[in-house]
Amino acid sequence: MGQLAETREFLASLIAKYSAFFDIIKGDTLPANIAFPLLKACGPARWSYAQRSHDASTIHPFSVQFDSMVLGAACAIIGVDNSLDFEILANLPSSCGGLGLTPYRFDGDDEAGRAELISRLSPAATRTREAADPGTWLNGKAWLGSAADFKSALLVRVGAFADIKRPVRCPGCAFRLSKDGAYDHAQGCANWKGYGPTHRHTSIVHRTANLCRAAGFDVSTEVVVGKEGETIDIIAIDNNGDEHWFDVTVCAVTAKSRRNKAFTQNERAATERKRKTYETLALAHDATLTTLFMSHRGVLGAATRALCATLDELREWTDGQGNSAERIISNTCIAASARIVRKAARFVQAQPDLPAAPADAAEAPDGAYQEEEAASPAVAPPDPDAVNTAPAEL
Predict the structure, then answer these.
(1) What is the Cα Rg of the chain in Å?
(2) Do 229 and 180 contact (CB within 8 A), yes or no?
(3) Domain limits of the chain?
């Protein structure tokens, strides 16, 4: 009995010791792109040895306390309240759409445990998880945007923008937006002024072009190739003189018109549209046409991943951190989409409440959700600018 009491006293002292670390990283001192990677790398790992070296029944109440500190720090860094959906998304591996914060109060590492967790998510959180990228940026090393963009990307990843509490009108197309439509609309509306999907598209084109140059291609961007002004995003000529045309397509896959379609369905549809537009022109120039498809959440299509693999084999240049071309392009997209969220959220927060929409009110048509264009509102959620807001160009 005395030995058990000593063990409990030791575990309680560990909890007290580690609480200082969590108090520091969830304060206002560190921006999100430093605080969260520290939490992810150093938080759960502190309890790993204690968990392995003590009896499960003895350590369980202390593991519950430790997990609570980890989740509390994550909530403070991201700027959200704790909830069942948040806990599940926080504890799921990043490859499954979560934050990758290892839990110790239960076994969530095996496939059955993950499936059980996922089954408890709400419909909105399920959509959020299914649209998520692999999360390679969560360690902070591959992040290509500002600290405020990083926080916004975290908010998106945990579904903070997935449930709008009040209706607003898009400042571009004037459609009434409600529920989870505003954030999705912001990623694709053709009429919103300011930083929007067109800027995201341009950032990705330039980043991809630079990777092609580093791999030894002779590269031109935004080239007019048709008599009617048809423009191809990237033309790259390899060492053999072969000409490659790359057209970048960023699709807002969570928009109402696309959310029920599989990723590959959206990819095939976009590829077919580009083929109809450019295939004849490409053949006339003896060029190979490739559609570089990706979702606004940074999930890359098959052809885009294949190009990235080729570039990694050819290029000698790296970004100094050993990031692959796939990670660089994906994270460029994620950071740009996060910046769209920041602007949209500020717009929504500044709007007066609208009266509730009548039951038969028309929703924004599919035409309001276009690829690579500009947009409007997201949620009136946590303020994404609460962390470092210094802009960093992509």
Answers:
(1) 23
(2) no
(3) 2-121, 150-386
Cβ atoms of residues 113 and 185 within 8 Å? no
Tell me which amino acid residue 198 is. T
Contact between 255 and 187 under an 8 Å Cβ cutoff? The reply is yes
Task: Please list, in sequence order, all residues whose beta carbon lies within 8 angstroms of the beta carbon of residue 183, skipping any fewer than 6 positions away.
Answer: 156, 161, 162, 164, 254, 341, 344, 377, 378, 379
Which residue's entry shows tokens 């791999």? Answer: 215
Q: Is 234 helix (H, G, I), strand (E, B) or coil?
A: strand
Average pLDDT of the residues in 69-79: 94
Is residue 100 helix, strand or coil?
Answer: coil
Q: What pLDDT was estimated at residue 367?
A: 35
User: Could you tell me the two tokens for 220?
Assistant: 């031109």
Strands 287-295 and 176-177: unpaired
Beta carbons of 330 and 296 less than 8 angstroms apart:
no
**Lowest mean pLDDT across 11-15, 25-29, 57-61, 310-314:** 25-29
Strand partners, 251: 295
Determine the average pLDDT of the residues in 349-370: 51
Instruction: Give me 329's structure tokens.
Output: 């392009």
> In 226-252, which positions are buried (b, 16+ CB within 10 angstroms) versus exposed (e)?
eeeeeebbbbbeeeeeeebbbbbbbbb
- In terms of phi and psi (left: phi > 0; alpha: psi -120 to 50; beta: otherwise), the region of 79 is left
pTM: 0.80
Please give the structure tokens belonging to residue 85: 């959906």
Cα-Cα-Cα-Cα dihedral sign, residues 20, 21, 22, 24 = positive
CB 62 within 8 A of CB 19: no
Minimal CA–CA distance to 94: which of 152, 150, 165, 154?
Answer: 154
Q: How far apart are CA 291 and CA 268, in angstroms?
A: 10
